[in-house]
Structure formats: C-alpha cells, structure tokens
Design a protein that fits this description.
By secondary structure, the protein is an all-beta fold. It has one helix at about 335-340, and strands at about 30-40, 45-55, 60-65, 80-85, 90, 95, 105-110, 110-120, 125-130, 135-140, 155-170, 175-190, 205, 210, 215-220, 245-250, 255-265, 275-285, 290-300, 310-320, 325, 330. It has one domain. The strands form 2 sheets. Strands 1, 2, 3, 4, 5, 6, 7, 8, 9, 10, 11 and 12 form a 12-stranded antiparallel sheet that branches. It has an 8-stranded antiparallel barrel with strand order 13-15-16-17-18-19-20-22. The two termini are about 35 Å apart.
Length: about 350
C-alpha cells in the first residue's frame, strides 16, 4: 500500500499528548476522537465527539442525537449535551471520560471500544460496543489546504476505521437496539486554524459506507465543477482532484481510490446539506464503483465554531442493489453559507 494507506498501531487510540513543561504549542493544535452510530429504522443518528485543545489545556464535545430531517437549529435535535469549554478529560488506564460524562473505553486499542453515556436528567443513555471490521487506516488532514498549517516536526496524524456497533440506546423512555456499521476517526497534533480565510475551500463531504467485507468505501471531497455545484464562482480550485483522501476495502485488500465524482442532485431547502447524491469512483486496480444516496436524517451540529457543520444518516445503494446506512458529513465556511441565502427561495434542482 502507499503511505497514504498506511496502518496505525492501536497505541494511537490513546495518543492525546500535552505540552512538556516550558513548551509552547499553537493554540489551534488539536487532537480529536469521533464515534457515531445510527438506528436507521427510526431515522436516528448520533455524533459522539471529543476535541482536545492541549495548549490550554481544555476540551470540548459530548453527545448529539438527531432524528429525521427537520433539525434546523442545534436545539431542534432529539438530544444535545455538547459543551464548548470543558476541563481536560479524565484518563484512567484505557478509558477517557469527558466532564459531561461521555466515556470511551478502549478495551482493545485499535480494535474494540466501549461507548457509554447517561444523561443527568435520565432522558437519554447508551451502552455500546464498537468492534473493528477494517484496519486502522492512516488519514491526514480534513479540509483541503489545511495541511499547509501543520507543524510537521510534531508528527501530526489521524486514523479512520469502520466499526460494528451493537448495544442499547434509550431516548425519552423508548429503548432501541443498535446494530450498525459506523466509521470512527481521530486526529492528533493537527492544526485546525480558525482565523478567517485561512483555509479557503468549497464545501467538503465525507461519505463512508459499509456494504460487507467485500466492499467498504470511503472518500472525502468537494463537488467537482463539471457537476455544476452551487459553489461555482466562489472558490478557485485549479486542476487539483476533487477528492483528497479515499479508499476501498475489498476483503483483506485495501486499495487507494484514484478518482471520485460526487454529483449532488438535491439539497436541503434550509440547511443546504446535500440530501440526494450520486458518487462514481475508480480504484488503483481500475475497478469502478457507483453509489446512490439519500439522507433519512440530518442536523446542524457543533464541533467547529468558524464553519457550518452537518451530520446525517444516509441510505446508500450500490450498483448491484445492495443497501446500507451510514453517516454523511458536510462542512463549509461562511462565504458559501452567505451565498446560499439566495437559494432558499429557489426550487430545488432534480435529476
């Protein structure tokens, strides 16, 4: 495999270093842990996140659970316990616990994690086991251009992995069985600059999907210009590829993806998230993949104060008719958001 498809050791799961005594780190340097899960039959999605800010040291994060597509504001979602300013999480052996009670226990680092949370008002709780079904693949930056701000001497890095998530969710008195395939990812020692204009980029979409051991697909990209995206005229992207990280898992083989064409057919009328789209991709062996997807749940969520961030549960179908569900996430800056104000009164384009 190429270096971009390297595999990390499980010890990176617990890599959340702090500056040494007398050492000064960039205030925008962060570590993160992300997990998620879904209950597709109830149109429920969950975003579980910790963002570490070691220069201070502080953290932010917690638990967001959303249901359906009518979540216009953060406080519309089914359950929200996400704090912007928290102390550094408690680390007890292999267990990381935030101040608001979200707990990640790495039972087997790199392979198995237990996710737990109970609301202080008892409205919501979950107890889940996430077991790896793909390697712990090495991942770099998230936004195109972000890598220019990294301090490479600090060895920034990241990882992605698909998990089989099982357990129980209890929400407002109703219990749900959870059994899904959901990605997790994380970053360490990466610099996510929040200064205005520091990372000019069109909206970026992340579309992991698991159809079975023979086909696991993942990409992060912007819509290419030949699909007539709404961002056209707002950003200059030159001749760079629309994707900057993508892979496909075929059994025990991990392949790099060499091209991605993501064509959005429909956008949410208010929050502007892509709600229906098609993806065509080709891997390094020349195999071609086609996927059609539609959001069954979506929400505006926190995580980054200088962007508009969205999570969703997507129903994906491959070109053989197989169906799966997974998160689809999208992020953009204010230049795009302001331009979208004019689209709220326009009819949504259809295929």
């Amino acid at each position: 495999m190429s270096s971009e498809l390297g595999i990390h050791g499980g010890d990176t799961d617990l890599l959340i270093p702090l500056p040494a005594a007398g050492e000064s780190w960039d205030p925008h340097l962060i570590h993160t842990h992300y997990f998620g899960f879904s209950v597709p039959e109830a149109a429920i999605g969950a975003f579980l996140y910790i963002r570490y800010q070691p220069a201070f040291p502080l953290s932010q994060g917690g638990v967001c659970v959303f249901q359906g597509n009518d979540n216009i504001e953060l406080t519309d979602i089914a359950y929200h316990d996400y704090e912007i300013t928290m102390p550094w999480p408690t680390v007890d052996g292999n267990t990381i616990t935030t101040d608001n009670g979200f707990s990640i226990e790495f039972i087997e680092p790199g392979a198995v994690a237990r996710l737990r949370y109970t609301a202080v008002d008892d409205r919501m709780s979950f107890d889940l086991i996430a077991e790896a079904v793909t390697p712990l693949l090495a991942r770099g930056h998230v936004m195109p251009g972000e890598e220019a701000h990294h301090v490479h001497s600090r060895q920034p890095g990241g990882s992605e992995q698909f998990m089989h998530v099982t357990g129980q969710l209890r929400l407002d008195g109703t219990s749900y069985d959870v059994e899904c395939f959901a990605p997790r990812d994380r970053s360490w020692r990466q610099i996510r600059v929040e200064r205005r204009g520091a990372v000019p980029s069109p909206p970026v979409g992340w579309s992991p999907m698991y159809f079975g051991p023979d086909l696991v697909f993942n990409q992060i990209s912007f819509e290419p210009l030949d699909t007539d995206p709404r961002w056209a005229g707002l950003y200059e992207v030159g001749d760079r590829p629309s994707h900057h990280y993508a892979w496909v898992q075929r059994g025990d083989e991990t392949r790099a993806v060499t091209s991605v064409r993501r064509d959005v057919l429909e956008y949410h009328p208010t929050i502007h998230l892509a709600t229906r789209q098609e993806i065509t991709a080709q891997d390094a062996c020349g195999d071609t993949y086609r996927f059609r997807g539609e959001a069954i749940a979506s929400a505006v969520l926190p995580a980054w104060p200088n962007v508009s961030f969205h999570d969703s549960v997507y129903r994906w179908e491959d070109d053989h008719g197989r169906v799966t569900h997974a998160t689809y996430q999208e992020i953009w800056f204010d230049t795009y958001q302001r331009a979208m104000l004019g689209h709220r009164l326009l009819p949504t384009p259809t295929a």
